[in-house]
Amino acid sequence: MNVGLGHYLVVSALLFALGLFGVIARRNLLVIYMSLELMLNAANLALVAFSRFTNNLDGQILVFFVITVAAAEVSVGLALIVALYRKRRSAHVEDLTAMKL
Amino acid sequence: MSVAFFIIALLTLLSAVAAMTLRNLIHCALALAFTFAGLAAAYLQLGAQFVGFVQLLVYVGAVAILIVFAVLLTRGREPATQGIFSPKWPVGAAVALGVFGTLAGLLLSSRVLHHEAAAIAQAPVRQIGEQLMTHYIVPLEVLGVLLTAALIGAVILAMHERESDSPPPSKT
Q: Which residue range forms the structural domain that includes residue A29?
């Protein structure tokens, strides 16, 4: 059985769905954050697979940019979570309702 | 090639499931690091050396460690009395299943699947470097500015602690 583009794309879609489930269903901010990273990585896998099977290097360059932006997001996001935890002593989404009407 | 692909895909998906469902946050972070490593292996298998090694350096090397540090700084433990999922988790499961169904349906009905694997280009890392330095030079510079801004912002956010508005750190 030959592995084609569809296999990689199905794996990518599964990872994306898992990450989406984690973002919606989990209660801890850090796990929600990890799920976001997982979704970014799922998109990256699809991009690399497309790049390989269409013989076009632009996909890999886009993945490089996505990884860089994700690194910036990691630094700011984790700093925000740590600062929030210092203020509120909690990392659960139910306890962060200050902006709720 | 296909056996390697199925092993990598299975390990990656299983560790992703573990990262989404485990209770101990340290275990979640380690499972996620394993997922990142599996994705790096998939990139290498796809002939994308540059992206594969960048993935290893950035995600497995830096992001996973940062997440572990954040877990430790926030006392990463779910209280044993409460569930790890929010009460409305079936909604999340339904949304995720719907998204996956839509994606899979579109994928399986598209014409893009009939691409055969092209021959791997010679020295793709050199080509990527040349492209980055010529065609993509403006986005590259903008990314440098973005990273600098993110660095300064993270330092300011994490430093912001005055004695007046923060409880004293516990000695334990």
A: 5-96
Q: What is the ipTM of this complex?
A: 0.91
Interface touch B93/A25, C-beta < 8 Å: yes
- Chain A interface disruption, residue of B1, B46, B56, B165, most A CBs within 10 A: B46
pTM of the model: 0.87
Residue to substitute from A31, A55, A58, interface B, most B β-carbons within 10 A:
A31
**B127/A30 Cβ within 8 A:** no
| Of residues B19, B73, B158, nearest to A34 (C-beta) | B19
- Structural domain includes residue A101: no
Contact A66, A47 (CB under 8 A): yes
Phi/psi region, residue B161 (left: phi>0; alpha: psi -120 to 50; beta: rest), is beta
Residue B11 phi, psi dihedral angles, 5° rounding = -65, -40
A6: which residues sit within 8 A by CB, 6+ positions away?
B107, B108, B113
Report yes or no on A75 lying in a domain: yes
CATH number, domain of A80, equals: 1.10.287.3510
Q: Is A26 helix (H, G, I), strand (E, B) or coil?
A: strand
Measured between beta carbons, the chain B residues lying within 8 angstroms of A5 are: 112-113, 115
Is the residue at A56 inside a domain?
A: yes
Walk along chain B (172 residues) and give the pLDDT tens digit of each residue.
688 999 999 999 999 999 988 888 889 999 999 999 999 999 998 888 899 999 999 999 899 999 998 888 887 555 666 777 888 888 989 999 999 999 989 888 887 777 666 666 666 888 889 989 999 999 999 999 999 999 999 888 878 666 555 555 555 5
Q: Closest chain B residue to A73 measured between Cα atoms?
A: B150
User: Residue B38 in contact with residue B8, Cβ under 8 Å?
Assistant: yes
Q: Total domain count for chain A?
A: 1
Q: For residue B70, give the nearest of A16, A27, A78 by CB distance.
A: A78
- Is A91 part of any domain? yes
